[in-house]
Amino acid sequence: MSEIRETKSSPAPRRAQAPPVARQLSVRAIMETILRRGPTSRAELAKHTGLSRQTTTQVVLELEREGWLQVSGRAQGPIGRSAPTYDLDPQAAYVLGIQLEGSVLRMALADIRGRVVIELDEPTDPKGGMAVVAQVGRVFAALIGQSGVSRERVQQASMGSPGVVDPKTGHIDIAPSIPHLGEINVVDAMRHELDLPLTIENGVKLAALGELWQGAARGADNFVYFGIGSGVGMGIVAEGRLLRGTRGAAGEVAFLPTGGDAFSPSADGAFEAAVNSAAMVRRFEAYGGKPGLTIAEIFVSLHEGDAHAIAAIDETSRILVLAIAAARAIIDPQLIVLGGSVGRRPEMVDRIRALMHRASMNGLTVAPSLLAGRATLVGALGEALDRLHTSLFGVDAARPEISLTNLTGGSPVSD
User: Fold this and answer.
1) What distance in Å separates the CA atoms of residue 355 and residue 41, rounded to the nearest whole number?
2) Which one of 23, 317, 340, 367 is CB 3.0 to 4.6 Å from 216, fit for a cystine?
3) Which backbone phi and psi does 333 adopt, to 5 degrees?
4) Is residue 164 pLDDT above 60, yes or no?
């Protein structure tokens, strides 16, 4: 599903190279105010930025000439007077968000205000490696062709993927759901395919950013996002910032020594092997449940009072609470957000809340993801917008007050 609007076909406007520092600060103050407040008159801009009216007028008219601002309406002043209000021209520039998973590739274009123009998804190419790189390029071309957005106006891209990106080699490690990614320099290959500035981040970390921007964690400075589905992952936001760690591996909780023997030579990850969807199916069958049921069918059995389903889901919840207790002891978050096809289930959320109360973890809020299977895409768009606003205007858009809006199209997918 997508939303398509008529857009400009002329090349994207460009900020002048290395303007004077005073002008840079003035541009930053004005653009930050407009990003936060929306359409604003020059008088109000001067009032909120502390700039003189003369400087405000000069900078606003310059940004209007460059194509970044446009007159959006009029503000009523005293004695019947009115003044033009200025807002970002939403078609001045665009960003590309990419959600790459073993089962689905989802991509979207958003304008400089964060409004999604078009979104497409399709099954991830099972050949993996360079075949997936080519697929990303093809879907990008489809986004451009179907939306009418000028390719030159797309100025930043961000991708969420499984695994951890090695900052030295550009390889993505620990991503078994997509074959051959560890054999290529994914960063260089994707940048060459798209011909765009591109950042690649672990998908669960971007899902945490998505929830911060527009989901269950809006307004939270310290929270932890647990993604529990076919795989497991954790995204940590501390003091309003995503925690990445030395090698970008902060939050890789698959190997947390909980739920299994961390010293077993066959253990791919004790925690992941104990709580992911495959583990729940194995547990259900080991307790005597009917073989061959899917996760969704096991939850149906739970509601029918199946003792095997109750026991399997209860045990999975207990192990998850142990991981939450570890995160609380180390990070001291104010909020836990549960995502993924297993983690966000209301049956899991209710059990985890009850177990946390029994484990004396009162005061720590637990909430299900509001963005479901699209949290990573929202985070990717937000990351790209952050970099776009910073590179153009020096504005730090990674603040909760500046959020993605009017996200449309698509539907949740199972993780």
Assistant:
1) 53
2) 367
3) -80, 160
4) yes
Q: What are phi and psi of 289, to 5 degrees?
A: -70, 165
**What predicted TM-score, i.e. pTM, was given to this entire model?**
0.87
Dist. CA 370–CA 216, nearest whole Å:
5
Amino acid, res. 93: A
Strands 335-339 and 365-368, bridge-based pairing: parallel
Q: What is the mean pLDDT of residues 10-20?
A: 60
Summarised one tens digit per residue, pLDDT across range 298-338 is 999 999 999 999 999 999 999 999 999 999 999 999 999 99
